[in-house]
Amino acid sequence: MQKTIEFDSIRLKLASPEVVHKWSHGEVLSPETINYRTQKPERDGLFCERIFGPSKDWECYCGKYKKIRYKGIICDKCGVEVTRSIVRRERMGHIDLATPVSHIWFLRGIPSKIGLVLDLSVQDLEKVIYFANFIVTDVDEAARQETLQQVADELKSKRKQIEAEFDHKISETQGKKSAQLQAGKDAEKVKTAAAELVMQLNAQKLEKLSHLDAAADTAKKELRSLQVQAIISENVYQDLSLKYGHVFEARIGADAIRYLLTRTDLKQMTRDLDKEILTCIPSKKKKLIRRSRLLKTLITNKIKPEWMILTVLPVIPPDLRPMVQLDGGRFATSDLNDLYRRVINRNNRLKRLKELKAPEVIQRNEKRMLQEAVDALIDNNARHGKTVTASTGQKRMLKSIADLLKGKQGRFRQNLLGKRVDYSGRSVIVAGPHLKLDQCGLPKQMALELYRPFVISKLIERDLVHNVRSANRYIDEGHIEVWDILDEITKGTRVLLNRAPTLHRLGIQAFHPILIEGKAIQLHPLVCTAFNADFDGDQMAVHLPLTDEAKREAEEIMAADRNLLKPATGEPITLPVLDIVWGVYYLTSLKPVKKNERPKLYANFDEAELAYKLGYLPLQQPILVNVNGKREETSVGRIIFSKILPKGRGFINKQLDKAALKQIVAESIMSQSKEEAVQFLDSIKDLAYQYITRSGLSWGMDDIPTLDIKGTLIKEGEDTVNEIREQYNNGWLTDHERYIKVIETWTDIKNRITEESKKQFDPLNSIATIIQSGARGSWAQMIQIMGMKGLVTSPAGDIIELPVKASFQEGLDVLEYFISTHGARKGLSDTALRTANAGYLTRRLIDVAQDLIIIDEDCKDAEGLSINLAETEDMNETIGGRIIGRYLAADVTDAKGKVIVKKNTLITIELGEKITKAAPKNVVIRSVLTCTSVRGICQKCYGFELGHNQLTTKGTAVGIIGAQSIGEPGTQLTMRTFHTGGVAGGDITQGLPRVEELFEARPPKKKSIIAPIAGQVIVENENLGTNKNRLLKIKSGEVSTATYEYSAEHDKLSVKNGEAVQRNHLILVKNDSEEIRAPYNGTAKVTKTSVQLTGEKNEMLEVIIPAGYNLWVKNGELVTSGQQLTEGSIDLHELYRLQGKLAVQRYIIREIKYIYSSQGQKLNDKHIELIARQMFSRIYVKDAGDTELLPGEIVTHTQFKEANNATEGAKATGEYLLMGITKASLASDSFLASASFQETARVLIDAAITGKRDKLRGLKENVIIGRLIPAGTGFKE
CA–CA separation, 795 vs 802, rounded Å? Predict the structure, then answer.
């Protein structure tokens, strides 16, 4: 097998043009693909053999060199290297672009990386890149000053000129006036005319001067507005370049942006930004920190920002974008080839236009088209309205490189996280009652295909054939030796059986194959529960483990006889069901004794059994036998069953139903070795099948007794309803009260019919025994068949007050049938929706918990998690039962204070029972919530691995087990939102949507009101109904204090030391512009790093209870801060603020357990604890100290600890963030894991620009790169 090269981490980094040239084996110059006549790749085209390697192994293009002996030679004729054709999957080419082109991911990604570096908006950048606007790239400051001086000088001289001109005109006017006066003209008229003329001249002079000033101002404004990075339109550019062409230079297109990026001095910019961050207003701060962080990562990773603009485009290897010929001579090709072809065509055209020195406008258009072609190649969905569609008939979108990576069909999820395997087959399954628990029936023909290579090797070894080809022929001819060899090979091997959907690890198990005739796989009846399989047409897949490690894992870990317990709860999963339960029930039943008939006496078991075999004694006949010196009434059936019981179990003298059988099996698995337990299970199965066959069990309609009293009861119900209607008509009842009473009446009638129906059955009636034994069906179903169907729901989920009075046996009338369809259809559609939702929830849970692995023995945590007796009893569990398989973090004492169990003890079933009897109010256990292991979890905090009921081993992937355990029963949870039936009551989310709401930390639908401070509750107008808003006051008993940490550099304080503060007064504004206001009246105490707010004693706080909420507290009751005051669901973020991390985690555990247990699904606490731990696995860095972290950064708990351990100086401080599971998965420190989860493009953009290193610590990353996962057998310490 091919081994991967050993390496510790993978780094993703932006590639420079030099690196792209280094990857490339040649430039693709022509858009041609394959020559239609020769069917061979065109030279310098997209499939060129000279660039990408030969299409046939060890053969050059022209055929001069053929065969392996010329390995490594480059043909002097065609230039192709003689090598393997597999190189066409790894050799890249390149296209040298005639003009720089922006990379759309770094332009359009949110936030735009190019925009962050240049501090420009995406809209402005797009205007420049797509040739709409110019951007100023250079301003000659000296020329500008010189021009400004010229303008000022020109203004001065022009002013002088204008003033001189007008002065001259005025003096001329004065001269004319004097001449006219001397000539004896009318003095008055002459003076007036002269004065008017002078006024006009002065006005003209002022107007000219103001025009001049305006022109000078405009010129100065224009000159001053010429700043680098100013965006100017085409017209403005033409105008300005004519006037001040020597002062500035403006460019257009990606070339302009690239020029600006090459000129950026990152270090200087970072220094300037850091200074600005200290003084800026809070609203700007977030963006500045983001810019600063980006620039710093560019500097540390030696990434030049101009690399975000492409000057050379890599061409991916041709075998990753194949082109194949179809039957009709047409070609099917990957969309990438079309997209590359567009780029090459436009690039070549642009080169030609440049050589021809074509007009700028034509070149510009071609550049824009080239930019759009490259955009479409990289990500065809990034620019709306500019997507490229296929040239064929339908206008489907072409799949770009980005589309090939993302989504379920993308490279990550389709090919890297899961691959198709050979050595596998699938077929329909049928029951194999004769099989042992670790066996499966495998059709011979299927086995022959699976084991074919091994059969071939044996055939050659025995000299029956001489090569593989003849061996294949020999097998196909069906020689008898082939089957003998197959029998021999399959002995002792294991095959894996898998049934989709694989919801938990028991969905794949290993069995010894037993070769059978026929074409269906035979499955052992007891493993059906684990696979959730039945025999109504289900199919299963078979896989053959090949390597020694895989065979060992199949034998030791995955074998069906080693997986008897359910990993979610630790209960047996290979439990007898259906026929087996009924067989044992029948075997251990006693027939009622007739009056005056005495049971016969037998000396011992053997004598009784002999009498049965000789036909003198029926199986269920009561008899008397001596058992351990004591005479007991029993039956032969019970004697036969007791013979297969485990040693030391004693004689069981009672009728065994499903629950009793479950108890016996569970005890057997706990107390015996695995082999003995498996043998016992098989014995029960064989015995039960033997006797159910002999019993002749059957049932038909005639076995259902008649219910004579039904008519009377229905009549009684109808009379009561008529009475209620009359009371309503008289106005004594409201419509709602009438509705409730009608529903109650029919519910009561149905209950009475149920009771009466049960009485009608003879205890030995076949239907009654099927239900009572727990084999199948329920009384509820039986009552619908023989009694009445009862009340049904409407499409809205309300109960229809008209009951279905008929039973299925009688048949429903048209109206009854119609109203029954609502509920039935809702049930079916719910199931379909639920499956998809539960699957998606499981996927997110697995993603968030995938790297939780047991990594050490003991983290020495002393805190632990307190388990409360009252809370446990509310969950219908015992305190001892809840802590089985966990370590104690503190001594357990009884009521007198005497230590019953010491700390650090592992709780076994016996100790659990002992603790339950002592009933301590609190027990503190080790928990994964408080485990201090850095990159995983320790054995002692996790405790027992429930699937094997023993202490977990190092390397166990407990996160995945936890996620599967929560997700697998998810399909059984309901989808409904529960209607309160009240008038104004809102809907409370339940079932699966509620689980999702909790794990995603979303604000709940019906949010409950919680106490903001501790104190005494005063309920005003207590007697008001729930349909009005009510006021509730809390009087704080003790003095409340709240502390808010702040950073003097980054946050803005709004209070002084000792200042009296009113409620809602602004205390401080955080650097992310979050405002913190006073929750109550008090006094502020300010230190260098924190503000402490001390409340007034007996302070009153008002809380409004909205309409439709029921209160959970009484007047005068004392409450704690964060206590729930009304019904509804608590908002996790509010609870975190008031009570802290542990309170939120406890609430999550309590709520999830309640949802599962209310649906009859058991779930162990530790699985929920793992997910709750991951919801708090990210830390917001408040102060970075002397570490490499940045303030405001969000890092994983592991990164935070490692950074603090690595520094000698001041440690970083931060706070845990409460994140939903999707958000926490995306914030993973592995970019491979995040990219394969969601938002692939965004994750890859961020990783490339920050030069992110993936240390390959989780499971997904290792699966992606094709390594064994670092868990289970692949765990390395």
Answer: 14
Beta strands in 549-673 (DSSP E): 600-602, 623-627, 630-634
Contacts of 1095 (CB under 8 A, 6+ apart): 1013, 1036, 1039, 1040, 1041, 1080, 1081, 1082
Cα→Cα distances 1240→412, 413, 419, 836, 1196, Å:
9, 11, 19, 22, 20
Q: Does the pLDDT value for residue 806 go beyond 60?
A: yes
Query: pTM of the predicted model, to two decimals?
Result: 0.84
Instruction: For domain 853-956, give the CATH number.
Output: 3.90.105.10
Q: Residues near 1002 by Cβ (< 8 Å), separated by ≥ 6?
A: 996, 1220
User: What whole-number distance in Å separates Cα of residue 300 and Cα of residue 1250?
Assistant: 9
Query: What is the fold of 706-760+778-812?
Result: Topoisomerase I; Chain A, domain 4 (1.10.132)
Q: Which residues contact 478 (CB under 8 A, 6 or more apart)?
A: none
Backbone angles phi, psi at 1271, to 5 degrees: -145, 165
Structure tokens at 104: 């759309």
pLDDT score recorded for residue 613: 95
Cα–Cα nearest to 799, from 808, 807, 809, 789: 789
Q: Which CATH entry fits the domain spanning 15-106+310-382: 3.60.10.10, 4.10.860.120, 1.10.10.10, 3.90.950.20?
A: 4.10.860.120
Helix axes 735-760, 779-786, angle to 10 degrees: 100
What is the Cα Rg of the chain in Å? Answer: 42
Please report the beta strands in 553-657, taking only residues with DSSP state E, as ranges in sequence order: 600-602, 623-627, 630-634
- Using 50, 70 and 90 to split pLDDT, how confident is the model at 596? confident
pLDDT greater than 80 at residue 1050? no
CB 799 within 8 Å of CB 793: yes
Give the angle 967-970-972 at the CA atoms, nearest 5°: 145
The tens digit of pLDDT for each residue in 661-720 reads 999 999 999 988 999 999 999 999 999 999 999 999 999 999 999 999 999 999 999 999
Rounded Cα–Cα distance for residues 1065 and 1086 (Å):
15
Residues with Cβ within 8 Å of 290's Cβ and at least 6 positions away in sequence, in order, are 111, 116
Residues whose CB falls within 8 Å of the CB of residue 589, separated by 6 or more in sequence, listed in order = 620, 635, 637, 655, 764, 769
Query: Which of 928, 947, 946 is CA-nearest to residue 937?
Result: 928
What pLDDT digit, counting tens, does each position of 71-116 carry? 999 999 999 999 999 999 999 999 999 999 999 999 998 889 999 9
Q: Which two tokens stand for residue 1140?
A: 């802290």
- Give the whole-angstrom CA distance, residue 1190 versus residue 1180: 10
- CA distances, 800 to each of 751, 793, 804, 980, 1266 (Å): 17, 5, 10, 15, 58
DSSP letters for 1008-1054: PPB-SS-EEEEESSTTS-TTS-EEEEEE-SS--EEEEE--TTT-EE-
Domain covering 414-530+538-562 in this structure, CATH number: 2.40.40.20
pLDDT tier at 1042, thresholds 50, 70, 90: confident
> Which 3 state secondary structure label does DSSP give 1095?
strand
Question: Strand, helix or coil at 392?
Answer: coil
SS3 track for 11-28:
ECCCCCHHHHHHHEEEEC
Where do runs of H (alpha helix) occur along 226-359?
Answer: 234-244, 254-262, 266-279, 282-300, 335-355
Cis amide prior to 111 (ω within 30 degrees): yes
- As a residue count, the chain comes to 1277
Ordered alpha helix ranges (H), 730-861: 735-760, 766-773, 779-786, 814-849
CA dist list (Å): 145 to 150, 219, 731, 1199:
8, 12, 94, 53
Structure-token pair, residue 213: 């000033």
CA-CA-CA-CA dihedral for 1021, 1022, 1028, 1030, to nearest 10: 70
Any idea what the Cα angle at residue 332 is, between residues 328 and 337, rounded to 5°?
145
Q: How far is CA 861 from the centre of its chain?
A: 30
